[in-house]
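thread: overnight batch results

M.L. [08:02]
morning all. the overnight job finished for the chain we discussed friday. pasting input first so we're all looking at the same thing
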Amino acid sequence: MKYLFLFLIILSCSPIEILEPLEFDNTQFTKISMMTKNVVITQQYEPIYQEPYVDHSLKNPPVDRLKSWINTNIITTGLENTLQIRILDASIKRFEEQNIDAKKYETKEIYKYQLFYLVEFNLYDNSDYLLATTIVESNRSTTSGKFISISESERILDDLILESLRDLSNESLELIKIYMKDYIL
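M.L. [08:03]
and the structure it wrote out:
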């Protein structure tokens, strides 16, 4: 009887799934080469510390990931002009919603996460005359269960940030090719 009890306890133990963190390698994103002397990043977005915003609670918020992408993937080659990049929004919101597709014994409440990037690219000459400008935005969302682990939640948000940066990177290149075509290499 004792062995049967021990066998049932061991059998009921399930392995713990360990989620590996996502690798944020900025070299996987699109590179943009501009004929400018330098790049100036201006962060106008300030995190909001109330519901439904959750980006302030992350170890690596979207605004930090965006700055890292800019520093790695915007390449300057030139002796004049300044590219000013203004970060207007880099927020993640979390909403509780009803899951209409839930099965009979599944929870009906889920979280929906929305990430929104809004970035303005301004190219100035040495006399601070505006030569070209464009605004790029990226909007992406995902859902998760309401009752998940912290590590799973962080993984979902990191994936959301990664895919949003990929969208922003591609859209930035397309719009810069259109509106700043004389200053791109």
